[in-house]
Amino acid sequence: MFEAYALVLARHMPVRPAAALLRITDNRLWRILKHHVSQALEKISLEDLRQLGIDETSARKRHDYISLFFDMVQRRLMFATRGKDAATVSRFRAFLEQHGGKAESLQEASMDMSPAFQKGVRENFPNAGVTFDRFHVVKLLNDALDKVRRNEWRDGQPVKGARFLLLRNVENLTAAQAALLEELRTRNATLARAWQLKENFRDFYRQTSLEDAHGFLKGWIADAIISDIDAIKETAWTFFDHFSGIMRWHISRIDNAVMEALAGLVQAAKAKARGYRNHDNLITIAYLVAGKLQLPTYPLKTA
Predict the structure, then answer these.
(1) Distance of alpha carbon 169 from alpha carbon 222, whole angstroms
(2) What φ, ψ does residue 69 adopt, rounded to 5°?
(3) First vs last Cα of the chain: how many Å apart?
(4) pLDDT, tens digit, for every residue of 15-36?
(5) Pick from 88, 62, 92, 66: which is nearest to 79 by CA?
(6) Angstrom distances, CA of residue 210 to CA of 155, 216, 251, 253
(7) Is the pTM above the cut of 0.70?
(8) pLDDT per residue over 208-223, tens digit each?
(9) Is the pLDDT of residue 201 over 90?
(10) What one-character-per-residue DSSP string does 144-160 give?
(11) Helix or strand run (H / E) with residue 52
């Protein structure tokens, strides 16, 4: 019961204060957590895995990266490992096969545009279609728009303080904010054109057929390239180079909100602890908060 209670505390607070509350050292608490997580991992079955999500995070700022592998249907973290290269995918394949899964059975893989992850999936999961997750695709375009805003500000254009107005979905703006946005677009033609291309791209995910989506994406890329706005053109060429993976969303319909929510749990735990000194500790916490593992439960009393 003591160890089950320790697992509950560690899910909701950093290890050091949890250990203090339990009146044990943080090293002992880490040993408890790693023991039970390791045992629970041995029991999981992956024989039904069909849709995979891949993400990455760091134990500390710009240090000790780990890769996270999610079951998009069961909505759980399956595997975490140090690094963010193609070898991490090979290690996941070994883990998958150790737990009853087959590499040939994987149908879909959702990820960002990391060349390493793409290479790893091609080499290890030949039957899996690659979908570049919607969140990442839209983020690339939003980053390009913000780069245009910063360039215009450096050139002396009156755009300071406009970041929120430009990046937020227009339907979520108040009447006053919408008026400010319209005034900004009137004053700055370059920013107005970049913003309009960003807004137009949202219609890509609203297309009702694969053929319509294909034509829309081709047309949008052409419009963006001839816009003569460097940051937008660069993003358009990135979309061109990753055309099939962006289009794949209209086939797989993978909802990357699942992966973002699970990765968010890991990020929140990392933020509470102000980072982790090594990747093993972060991996243990990742499993604990996002793995849906069968761990000992503490019999909490109810009123």
Answers:
(1) 23
(2) -120, 120
(3) 20
(4) 999 999 999 999 999 999 999 9
(5) 92
(6) 41, 10, 8, 12
(7) yes
(8) 999 999 999 999 999 9
(9) yes
(10) HHHHHHHHHHHTT-S-T
(11) strand 51-60
